[in-house]
Amino acid sequence: MSIILFDDPEIRVNLKPFTLTRPIAAIRVGIFTIAEKWQRILNSPVFYQTEVYLYGKFPGLKQPDALYINGALCPTPELAAQILELKPGESLVYQNTILAYKSKADGKAINYTQPITILRQCWDIFQQNGSQIRQDFDLYFSKKKVLKIDDPYTVVYNQSQVFIEEGANIKAAILNAETGPIYIGKNAEIQEGALIRGPFALCEGSVVNMGAKMRGDNTIGPYCKVGGEVSNSVLFGYSNKGHDGFLGNSVLGEWCNLGADTNTSNLKNTYSEVGLYSYKTGKIEKTGQQFCGMMMGDHSKTSINCMLNTGTVVGVCANIFGHGFPPKFIPSFAWGGSEGFEIFDLEKAFEIASKTMIRRNIVLDENDKKILRNVFEHRVLSL
Which site among 112, 151, 156, 210 is 20 to 30 Å from 59 CA-CA? Predict the structure, then answer.
């Protein structure tokens, strides 16, 4: 049975800027991306139903007899079992949201009554991250043999909730899993003096720099570097926040870089509700959230000493620099800061992206260029 993860159009708009460069199911929350979660729980490869310009990098599949699952939906064993029981034409529905259907959703609609985790807004990514780390850990790592940390200067609290993959290197750190599980991926590195509190996921090849403070509910995706202070944030992968500075209640896509002493505000001085730019309405909209930092799309960067306001949204291939606070919405391919922005040349953006990616031994190919070109041609020009 072929598994196809489909994009709900309304949710897809709400999850921009992250869905400008990927299907919804390629978003990382917890230890894995949503697609990786479904692959694991169903023991099957998955395909995507998304925007045409993404198919070169995220393969789709046209097959009449397939199982379609909402790409924003995080699986559980109970949910997966009920989806597998669907007959052709049947759909599984939760409060008017289609969760899954077999072949076509033109037959019986079955109501799912158990709680679900579905990403509907950007802030859901960091809000659900801690619980998703716990669930991923319980499903796939809690019953595996725990590797012993042989470094005599590393302190571990609640070691049964710490799982370390082969090749990981930990020196003179403190790992506190009393507040939630800690997952350390293959060939990851935790340097001297790092303080880590669970729930926490450090994926393959990533590095926690010396003296870093990871305050909990954090996921550091593959091949990232992090330092300074990080709280309740998700880095999808291949991104760097390697220096001092605070990142809280935030989400960074891939190939981002935060300059030294970049700081994000995640709480307003008035303790009031945070507003966030909406790609759907083109306006700053209320979120209902008291804590919300920055949402940064792929290939975007900040300079040293950059200050970012509560609820800042940054598009794709943006570069933020200069003194003062920049606007709360920075469009894709915008370069500048508080004194204004100019549009960055697409070919120059390709050049910088290529240099960035080759450092991780990855080539910027034609599929990547097609995606970035589409974002450039359909970018939002201003607030």
Answer: 112
